[in-house]
């Protein structure tokens, strides 16, 4: 690991945390220590910028390296790709257009697309704008014609023609509005529709309707020279530099870049501590909800968690090289922003929620250990958890990869010879010990408090 820089940012002064002693702990120092542990001990990311709203004031800390060529220290003005936090902006655009009388939540999607574009229905029930904004449109997470020419920048060549082609041939498996499924495709389509309706590009619409009213000068898709100078380098789960992502038709799903200081303004406006003409639209994005899971609902773009006698409004995001989180409590006023320049998605989200409410557990610090490639090879195979769901395990030398049914393949990391963990989601796998010279007979998937046993399929 490279040497780490720890920079502590107070509300009025810039302090070097490693170069000062503090007679008493401070919120800034406490936050910096949490970040230091995640960066140095967890080895999950190159650097973190965290912001908290506590007691009505902002607290900011940063630790680690930006990885950028100019070696600029991380701070509250460092630019990150915010990924799916973009979805909240798209939902807010929808609510603003509803408030203005330009669209209605129950408008069918087909109403706003060009003549000749076919939109799937389920037994005569159309997809509405509300369905798109609540992850309940019945559409898959990603279109099946998503085949990027450059996997390092996967969304750049997915244009409107391919989007329309997918819609024309897709058949819905569920009635819109009835089932939750995370929706990169759905929010990309929603952003595209709102752009068509307004006669502006998605970025122009976000700037004119949200960024300008809130004074968010560093939330953009197209980077200014100043933003580019402050851009943190993104890294994958192995902490190797990766390319930035660019978007075409699906911009509404994840195209925005921003800073902690800009996201403070966004959260404060939602909390009502910052005057904004978007107040009615913001209220709408939180008041319209559909159930998702136990103790969690979806609003327009936002997730809402009700535990520990609290309600936390939150959204996380990630691209190929960044993991991000914004959230706040509607009952205590506590809020948090967490920006990482690596793809440590699951840990970043868990830490972000903990910074809002300490009753939510901190993510476990997991340490990667080497495992003999011969042992990894014994784990390779297909493990059936149910008739319709299996995990396919592939060994590649000293690395191990797992692909779930109808999902992408992801690397898992060893914390013992038999125990492995994902970095992209909060899930772990335990393999049964292979018999002498043989293959592992089974595995157990640990996720969402469940332990799901998978039996190895015969070759």
Account of the 3D structure:
It is a single chain. This protein has twelve helices and 20 strands. It has 459 residues and is an alpha+beta fold. The chain has two domains: 81-356, 3-Layer(aba) Sandwich (Beta-lactamase), CATH 3.40.710.10; 373-456, Beta Barrel (Lipocalin). The strands form three sheets. A ten-stranded antiparallel β-sheet has the order 2-1-4-3-12-11-10-9-8-7, sandwiched between helices. It has an eight-stranded antiparallel barrel with strand order 13-14-15-16-17-18-19-20. The protein has a two-stranded antiparallel ribbon with strand order 5-6. Strand 17 and strand 18 form a beta hairpin. Residues 1-24 have low confidence and may be disordered.
């Amino acid at each position: 690991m490279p040497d780490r820089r720890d920079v502590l940012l107070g509300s009025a002064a810039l302090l070097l945390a490693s170069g000062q002693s503090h007679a008493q702990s401070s919120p800034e120092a406490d936050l910096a220590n949490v970040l230091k542990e995640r960066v140095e001990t967890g080895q999950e990311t190159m650097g973190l910028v965290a912001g908290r709203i506590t007691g009505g004031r902002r607290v900011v800390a940063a630790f680690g390296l930006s990885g950028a060529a100019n070696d600029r220290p991380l701070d509250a003005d460092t630019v990150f790709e915010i990924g799916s936090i973009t979805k909240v902006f798209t939902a807010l655009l929808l609510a603003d257009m509803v408030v203005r009388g330009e669209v209605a939540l129950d408008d069918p999607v087909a109403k706003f697309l060009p003549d000749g574009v076919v939109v799937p229905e389920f037994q005569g029930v159309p997809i509405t704008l509300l369905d798109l904004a609540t992850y309940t449109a019945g559409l898959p997470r990603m279109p099946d014609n998503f085949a990027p020419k450059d996997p390092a920048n996967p969304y750049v060549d997915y244009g409107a023609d391919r989007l329309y082609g997918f819609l024309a041939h897709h058949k819905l498996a569920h009635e819109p509005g009835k089932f939750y499924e995370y929706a990169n495709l759905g929010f990309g389509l929603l952003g595209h529709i709102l752009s068509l309706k307004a006669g502006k590009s998605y970025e122009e619409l976000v700037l004119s309707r949200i960024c300008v009213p809130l004074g968010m000068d560093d939330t953009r898709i197209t980077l200014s020279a100043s933003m580019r100078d402050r851009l943190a380098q993104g890294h994958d789960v192995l902490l190797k530099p990766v390319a930035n992502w660019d978007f075409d038709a699906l911009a509404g799903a994840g195209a925005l870049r921003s800073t902690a200081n800009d996201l403070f303004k966004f959260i404060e406006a939602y909390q009502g501590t910052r005057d904004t003409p978007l107040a009615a639209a913001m209220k709408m994005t939180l008041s319209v909800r559909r159930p998702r899971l136990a103790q969690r609902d979806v609003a327009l773009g936002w997730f809402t968690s009700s535990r520990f006698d609290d309600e936390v409004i939150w959204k996380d995001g990630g691209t190929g090289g960044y993991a991000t989180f914004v959230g706040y409590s509607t009952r205590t006023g506590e809020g948090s922003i967490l920006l990482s320049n690596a793809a440590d998605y699951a840990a970043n989200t868990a830490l972000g929620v903990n910074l809002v409410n300490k009753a939510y557990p901190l993510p476990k610090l997991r340490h990667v250990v080497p495992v003999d490639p011969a042992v990894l090879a014994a784990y390779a195979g297909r493990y059936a958890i149910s008739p319709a769901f299996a995990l396919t395990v592939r060994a590649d030398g000293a690395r191990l990869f797992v692909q779930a049914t109808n999902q992408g393949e992801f690397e898992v990391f060893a914390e013992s010879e038999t125990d492995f963990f994902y970095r992209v989601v909060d899930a772990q796998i335990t393999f049964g010990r292979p018999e002498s010279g043989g293959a592992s007979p089974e595995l157990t998937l640990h996720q969402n408090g469940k332990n799901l046993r998978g039996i190895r399929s015969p070759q």
